[in-house]
Automatic annotation (TrEMBL):
Fe cation binds at H38, E86, Y222, Y223. It comes from the Bacteria. It comes from Paralcaligenes ureilyticus. GO terms for molecular function: metal ion binding. PANTHER family: IRON-UTILIZATION PERIPLASMIC PROTEIN (PTHR30006:SF15), THIAMINE-BINDING PERIPLASMIC PROTEIN-RELATED (PTHR30006). InterPro entries: Ferric-bd (IPR026045), SBP (IPR006059). This is Iron(III) transport system substrate-binding protein. Belongs to the bacterial solute-binding protein 1 family.
Length: 336
């Protein structure tokens, strides 16, 4: 089955690697990337690009939101050339402040159009899906809810884990606003506060399911695969429920990258973004973390549910914006 989002991107993708490898650079060339993406992913991409081009990549790691705030404070004096974010809202926030440069149209054309800013100021590089992790000893698939909204109820009192500080959770709030309205999103959050158990990290919420502290947890798919890689899939006490049928519980979110307008190495920064969108770059991105490649020619080494079967809501990365409304709703619900 063809990926419904990809369209006819394969021809354009054929030229990506050749374009990147044609860069002629001196050994002194260096790009500084403020990195909020997973370290293993960013390190792999940096090493592959350096091997292909000779360009040195310096990574300064931190949380995506903190790095975006730092860039905003630094303004046109920022030493960074690029910002690689674990999620797209921090990129959207910087774009709104006019701090990002447009990405080359040829690079944007390599990946699906709903995975970049509408004005081309940032590009999504990989995707992940919101899921419900459940304890297999306590629940069967038939016990699970058809909508993520249903978990914020008395039926699930003390049984559902969630992570209000998670960027992906906040994007899920925005998706609910767009699909059901602000009042529904606020009611959901108040229900989770009343009946759920808040964790500070997604991995902690998943471990809560594994230990039986809670029956279910609202997380991203790749946290389960990371733990399964460590423990062995057959030793996992939990499994994943993919909510589907265009519910906010099946929201697809993305990591992304942007070029700082203040960078004095615009051409070189464009080459790095083109590399991430190329087949070679996309393969590197998904080799170690169970995210979905956005280039249609690439296959993940993880046994992921096919992207074409996720049936996510019609809310794109660009539609999520900077997710500022989510922080306001979290505060109103008393979760911060």
């Amino acid at each position: 089955m063809k990926h419904p989002l990809f369209g006819k991107l394969r021809v354009a993708a054929m030229f990506a690697v050749a374009t990147v490898l044609s860069v002629q650079v001196s050994h002194a060339e260096t790009l500084l990337i403020y990195n909020g993406q997973h370290k293993v992913t960013a390190n792999g991409a940096a090493q592959a690009f350096e091997k292909a081009t000779g360009v040195k990549i310096e990574l300064r790691n931190g949380s995506s939101s903190q790095l975006a705030n730092l860039i905003a404070e630094e303004g046109n004096k920022s030493p960074a050339d690029l910002f690689y974010s674990e999620e797209t809202p921090p990129l959207a926030a910087l774009a709104e402040k006019g701090l990002l440069a447009p990405i080359d149209a040829k690079t944007l054309a390599l990946l699906p159009g709903n995975y970049h800013a509408k004005d081309g100021d940032w590009l999504a590089t990989s995707a992940r899906v919101r899921v419900v992790a459940y304890n297999k000893a306590k629940l069967k698939p038939g016990d699970l809810e058809p909508s993520v909204l249903n978990y914020a109820s008395q039926k699930w009192a003390g049984k559902v884990g969630f992570v209000p500080t998670s960027g992906a959770f906040q994007q899920q709030i925005v998706a609910i606003v767009k699909l059901k309205g602000r009042d529904a999103a606020l009611e959901w959050l108040k229900g989770l506060k009343k009946y759920g158990k808040a964790y500070n990290k997604n991995a902690a919420a998943l471990n809560g399911v594994e230990r039986g502290e809670v029956d279910v947890a609202l997380i991203n798919n790749y946290y389960w695969y990371a733990l399964a890689k460590e423990k062995g899939a057959k030793n996992m006490a939990s499994a994943l429920d993919y909510v589907g049928h265009k519910d906010a519980g099946a929201l697809v979110t993305a990591a992304g990258i942007g070029i700082l307008k203040s960078s004095k190495k615009q051409a070189l920064a464009q080459k790095f973004v083109a590399f991430l969108a190329s087949p070679q770059g996309q393969q590197v991105i998904v080799n170690d973390v169970a995210e979905y490649p956005l280039n249609p020619s690439i296959k993940s080494p993880f046994d992921l549910k096919p992207f074409s079967e996720l049936d996510p809501p019609d809310v794109s990365a660009a539609d999520l914006g900077d997710a500022h409304e989510a922080t306001e709703l979290i505060r109103e619900a008393g979760l911060s």
